[in-house]
Here is the input.
Amino acid sequence: MSACVFTVDVEDWFHILDVPSTPPLEQWPGLQSDVERNTRRMLDLFREKQVKCTLFFLAWVAERWPHLVREALADGHEVASHGYAHELVYTILVSGSLPTSARRRTSSSKPVAARFSATVVRASA
Ligand SMILES: [Zn+2]
Here is the structure.
């Protein structure tokens, strides 16, 4: 058996960073989502190949599809937070610091992660 380190960002097509055409957060609930189907396909493949990995869930995704988080945990994967809404810190900084409104968004994945006993990892996109 060989060892590998494999991580997955669990996010949707409309969570793309640094692209001006990416829809704003307010529009996300109304968009066609592929994250459930694609994550399920990956989990099936990991199960078939007996691979364990770390899945970094956006809290926005975990709120809407909590069964994906539970399924990943049940399969023995590590689940971690990838922030709430996939924002780049340097795009929300004002004069080099994080405004209170942005601080709320970047820390709001903690309650979601705690609900699933997931590891909260401080990381950028
Ligand atoms: Zn990401």
Remarks:
- The beta strands are 7-10, 54-57, 78-81.
- Helices lie at 35-49, 59-64, 66-74, 89-92, 100-107, 109-115.
